[in-house]
Specification:
Blueprint lengths: L8 E6 L2 E6 L2 H10 L5 H9 L5 H14 L6 H5 L6 H17 L9
Helix pairs in contact: 1-3, 3-5
Length: about 110
């Protein structure tokens, strides 16, 4: 399964299955509501701190799965197994957020 990063997609192995995730506008609106922020800029700022709780990871991954057309409640995602455990879930969420909000700029080397 290939992800289209230009569309904000990522692929990840969850529960032993390759899955596609995407934070669509609807998924981002869902996260705005869940995190009680007023707009996408505030959402990006919140995620930009790099500090995400386990509950945050569940919400982001679940929204990404639903955004890609899957059916996954937050409770279902909380029970899923991730390669490399919590660190693997954090990597999936970070990749998904980077795909949605853009990769950080890398300084050019002289």
């Amino acid at each position: 399964m290939a992800a289209n990063r230009r569309r904000g997609e990522v692929c990840a192995t969850i529960d032993g299955q390759e899955r596609r995730l995407c934070l669509t506008l609807g998924a981002l609106a869902e996260l705005e509501d869940a995190f009680r922020v007023d707009d996408v800029a505030a959402l990006a700022e919140r995620f930009g701190t790099g500090r995400l709780s386990a509950r945050d990871l569940v919400r982001v991954i679940a929204a990404g799965l639903r955004g890609a057309g899957g059916e996954a409640s937050d409770d279902a995602v909380a029970a899923m197994r991730f390669e490399n455990g919590a660190a693997g879930a954090a990597r999936i969420a970070a990749d998904l957020l980077a795909a949605a909000f853009g990769e950080p700029e890398v300084a050019a080397r002289p």
